Amino acid sequence: MTNKLLFFDVDGTLYNSQKQLSYATKEAIQLAKENGHIVAIATGRGPFMIEELRRELAIDTFVTYNGQYVVHEGDIIFTDELTKEQQHDIIAFAASRNEPVVFMTAAEMIASVPNHGGIGASLSTLKYPYPRVEADYFKNNPVYQLLLYTPVEQERIYTERFDYVQLVRWHETSCDVLPKAGSKARGIQKLAERLGFSMDDVIAFGDGLNDVEMLQAARIGVCLGNGHEKAKEAADYVVAHVDDEGLSQAMRMLELI
User: Fold this and answer.
1) Mean pLDDT throughout 218-244?
2) Alpha-carbon distances, residue 30 vs 63, 71, 117, 236, 250 (angstroms)
3) Over the stretch 26-38, which tens digit does the pLDDT of each residue have?
4) 172 and 190 co-located in one domain
5) Is 155 helix (H, G, I), strand (E, B) or coil?
6) C-alpha span between 177 and 166 (Å, rounded)
C-alpha cells in the first residue's frame, strides 16, 4: 500500500476503556510510521488534553476540538469558532434554563458555574478535575468549542433556536457545541490539502458520534467494535472491540503494518 494519511480518534480508539494505551496499539502506531505513513490524531479533546499521549506516540500532527483547531508540526493551519455574539446568545439561553457550559480553549477549559454535578461527572470520565470558573471568559478569549450540559431530549431546542450550531453528544450529561460546518472531516480536509494529500489517501479510525463524518469522508473508515451504532453504519469496516486490540488488528488487515 502506498503511503497514507492515518487519523486516529483518542477515546475508545487509541485509548481503551480504561483510558490506557495498550502495548499493541503503541507498537502498531510506531510500525505505521516506520512504513512511511503519516500518523495524526483526530479528537474532540483539546490540544492540552492530548499532550501526554502525543509525547508517548511521538505524534505532532492533530485535529482537535472536532476539526476546530488543526496543527501540523507546531504550525496552526486552521481554526474556527463561534462568534462572540453567537456564544453570548447560547450561553445566556442556557443560563436561563440552569444549564451551564464549559469553555474549551487551546490551553485549558473553564466552567461557567461552580460545583455542577454534570460537569464533574463528565470530566471525571476523561480523568480531568473540575475546571476553574469564569462565567464571562468567552468575551475576551478565543473559545474553539463549548461543552453544553443539557439532557438528550432537550438538544433539539438548541439546534432549532440556534441554527448556526450542531450538537454532538459525547456523554449522557453533555454535548459538544460546534459551528454548523464543523467536523473532524473538515479539519482532516484542511490538513490533507496542506500536506498534498487527497481524501482518497486518508484512512480514519474511530468509534463515536463525532467520528461519523470522518469515517464517511475518508477513503477507508474503520470503526471499533465498541463504537456507536451510527459510527458503525458510517464505516467501511467494523473490527474488534478496542479492549480486544481491534485497532492493531485492523491496521494489519489493511496492510498498514
Assistant:
1) 98
2) 19, 20, 39, 24, 15
3) 999 999 999 999 9
4) no
5) helix
6) 6
Q: How far apart are the first and last CA of the chain?
A: 10
Give the CATH number for residue 153.
3.30.1240.10
Question: Distance between alpha carbon 147 and the CA centroid of its chain, in Å?
Answer: 12
Report the C-alpha gap between 143 and 140 in whole angstroms: 9
pLDDT in tens, 69-112: 999 999 999 999 999 999 999 999 999 999 999 999 999 999 99
Where in the sequence is the domain holding 10, given as residue range(s)?
Answer: 5-79+182-253
Does one domain contain both 138 and 155? yes
Q: Smallest Cα–Cα separation from 137: which of 176, 101, 89? A: 101
Q: Are residues 126 and 165 in the same domain?
A: yes
Please tell me whether residues 222 and 143 are part of one structural domain.
no
HSE on the CB side for 50, CA within 13 Å?
27
Same domain, 195 and 148: no
Domain boundary residue, one of 135, 152, 179: 179
Using the structure block, give the residue that is written with the C-alpha cell 494489519: 252
Domain count, the chain: 2
Q: Which three cell numbers stand for residue 148?
A: 453544553
The residues annotated with a catalytic role in the active site are 9
3-state secondary structure of 233: helix
Domain end marker among 146, 179, 212? 179
Q: Which helix (H) or strand (E) element contains residue 230?
A: helix 229-234
Task: Tell me if 80 sits within 8 A of 65, measured CB to CB.
Answer: no
What is the pLDDT confidence band of residue 58, given thresholds at 50, 70 and 90? very high
**Does residue 161 share a domain with residue 74?**
no
Q: Which residues contact 59 (CB under 8 A, 6 or more apart)?
A: 29, 39, 40, 41, 53
Q: What is the pTM of this model?
A: 0.91
